[in-house]
Amino acid sequence: MVAKHTLIVGNWKMNLNMHEASLYLHQLSELVKVHRDVDVVLAPTIFTLQSLSLQINRRQFKLAAQNLYWRDHGAFTGEVSATQLRGIVDYAIIGHSERRHVFGETDKDVRNKVQASIRNNIRPILCVGETTAERTYGETNDVLHDQLIGGLANVTSDELKEVIIAYEPVWAIGTGNNALPSDVTTAIKAIRGQIKHLYGKQAAEDITVLYGGSVTASSAADYLALEEVDGLLIGGASLDAHAFTDIIKKAHKGAAVATNA
Ligand code: PEP
Question: How far is the CA of 75 from the centre of ligand 1 (A)?
């Protein structure tokens, strides 16, 4: 099996105007080295995407949309389609907890967006995760099951190769609450179990699964060390160039070997 690259995604959420985003990208470009085993993806707000796409070195960074609309064009005021994003971004975050819980996105919306992404050659990063209440009632596995079934309906085995899953417990996002590495392992095992059930053993091993939820430069290594984790989805800490660079360095396996030597 070809070794997977570690994927580090920085979700800037609704932060940084055009000028700030350019300055930040410049700062990050100076700090981040290109590592062959690490893919770094930046998810700025949609209106800065096109300009940043002209400024980035695509060997160093790829771009992601934080959201998209699933229809290709038409009377959908305020929305941006995957067709319009095609060629600008390589990835799209789909079903982020803030989309689901602040904007009321349903599994059906998420499924349509996953399909629109794939149809437009954009790799969907499908976010799944339970709320505090669901966790308290022991419903984590059921939630993951339903969100995976909902988000991946109609995705073929071939298309699944383009899909990335992000396990993002809602209670850990932007809260400073750290999920225990053992909880992350259990949840991602459940995710791979569901993928195995739907697509087979090889697909379950091959699929890239990220963890996200209040990861910082100090906690990143603990999650990256987990066998089940193929990378991280970082919100707050991705807005600090030094913290984000530190996280990328930790994801670079050569660096870990050198440090241990
Ligand atoms: C996110 O935006 O997906 C996220 C995980 O945010 P934070 O790292 O701030 O919790």
Answer: 32
